[in-house]
Amino acid sequence: MSQNNRDAEEKEGQINNKFYRENKKRLYAEFPNKYITICKGKIAETGEDFFPTVQKTKENHPAIKHCLIIHTALLTKRRRAGLGWQMKRTLIK
Predict the structure, then answer these.
(1) pTM, 2 dp
(2) Of 41, 47, 35, which is closest to residue 64 (Cα–Cα)?
(3) What is the DSSP string of 37-93?
(4) Tens digit of pLDDT for each residue in 11-49?
(5) Of 12, 18, 19, 25, which sits 20 to 30 A from 64 (CA to CA)?
(6) 10: helix, coil or strand?
């Protein structure tokens, strides 16, 4: 991979990540439990299953260099479960 291709891929990655950070709440609200592909700073495809969504993205957007794939069901509030014991951090010298 040439340096120009790496630079283009890195630039697209930065654009995709910026779009995701700015629109994260909206994406999770509008597309619950969906796979979303983000290419060139826009939503490229959405779908119920991972592989068909990725395939659709490859077919409809063949010239992309970087694509961000997220699953909106994975953002949940973290819950703590009681284990009945606690770990203590110790320093061994």
Answers:
(1) 0.73
(2) 41
(3) EEETTEEEEEESSHHHHHHHHHHH-TT-S-EEEEETTS---------SS--------
(4) 999 999 999 999 999 999 999 999 999 999 999 999 999
(5) 25
(6) helix
